[in-house]
C-alpha cells in the first residue's frame, strides 16, 4: 500500500493549515509506529552576529538605531534586537544602555 498526497486532500478549506511536507513527516512517524508527539530538536543556523563586535559597535556610538545596526551587520532587525538583549542592552532616551536586572533576575543567574 502506498500513500500519496493528492492536492484535492489539502483543498478542503481555503486556508492551508499544514503543508504536504508536514503531513508526509507525520505519516512517516505514524508508519514507523513512532507516536511520540514531542518535537525533535532541529539544527539552528549559526548566528551571523558576533556579540562582542555588536557590543563594541554599540559602545562606540550608542545612538545608532536597531535598523542602522541591522543594516551594518546585514541581518534582520529582530536578530539585532535578540543579540542586544543577549548583551543586556536596552534603548533609553535614544541610547543603548546596559539593562538593569531586578533582584529576582539576579538570583536566577
TrEMBL record:
Membrane-spanning residues: none
Gene Ontology CC: one annotated term: condensed chromosome
Organism: Nephila pilipes
Protein's recorded name: Histone-lysine N-methyltransferase SETMAR
A GO BP entry: DNA integration
GO molecular function: DNA topoisomerase binding; double-stranded DNA binding; histone H3K36 methyltransferase activity; histone H3K4 methyltransferase activity; single-stranded DNA binding; single-stranded DNA endodeoxyribonuclease activity
InterPro entries (alphabetical): Transposase-MT_Hybrid
Amino acid at each position: 500500500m502506498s500513500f500519496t498526497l493528492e492536492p484535492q486532500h489539502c483543498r478542503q478549506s481555503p486556508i492551508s493549515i499544514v503543508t504536504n511536507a508536514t503531513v508526509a513527516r507525520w505519516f512517516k512517524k505514524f508508519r514507523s509506529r513512532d507516536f511520540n508527539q514531542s518535537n525533535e530538536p532541529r539544527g539552528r543556523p549559526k548566528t551571523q552576529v558576533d556579540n562582542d563586535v555588536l557590543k563594541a559597535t554599540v559602545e562606540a556610538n550608542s545612538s545608532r538605531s536597531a535598523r542602522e545596526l541591522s543594516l551594518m551587520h546585514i541581518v534582520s532587525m529582530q536578530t539585532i534586537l535578540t543579540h542586544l538583549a543577549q548583551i543586556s542592552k536596552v534603548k533609553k532616551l535614544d541610547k543603548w544602555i546596559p539593562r538593569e536586572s531586578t533582584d529576582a533576575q539576579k538570583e536566577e543567574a
